[in-house]
Fold this protein.
Amino acid sequence: MTVIIDNKSGAPIYDQIYSQIKNQIISGALKENEMLPSIRGLAKDLKISFVTTKRAYDELEREGFIYTIQAKGCYVAPKNVELLREENLKRIEGHIEEIVRLSAACNLAKSDIKEMLDFAFEAEKEENQA
């Protein structure tokens, strides 16, 4: 598991940890039931407060991405397909909002965006068949 803290990002450190671990779980980089670094161990590695790391882990557990076994550690929770789908839908909606904003800024028509999407889907399909 890799977590990199960016002091220039403006995002709180606990949120950076939370987001990076969550993204690694969603992408499959972290597997179901895989043990995560201990809260204290990760805090030591990142040279941050134990409380900051604990806050990130607590949020991940509250949202169902990890689970804790007392005196054993924290583990990646089995994937809840509906939860992952909802997370991906939120990410897609965010990208769509950005596409709409950018297309308006450069006067692209809706048909141009649809054509770009069609092209991207075709390219993805060809890539998966190769």
Remarks:
- DSSP finds five helices and two strands in the chain.
- The longest helix spans residues 81-105.
- The CA atoms of residues 68 and 74 lie 4 Å apart.
- The two ends are 30 Å apart (CA to CA).
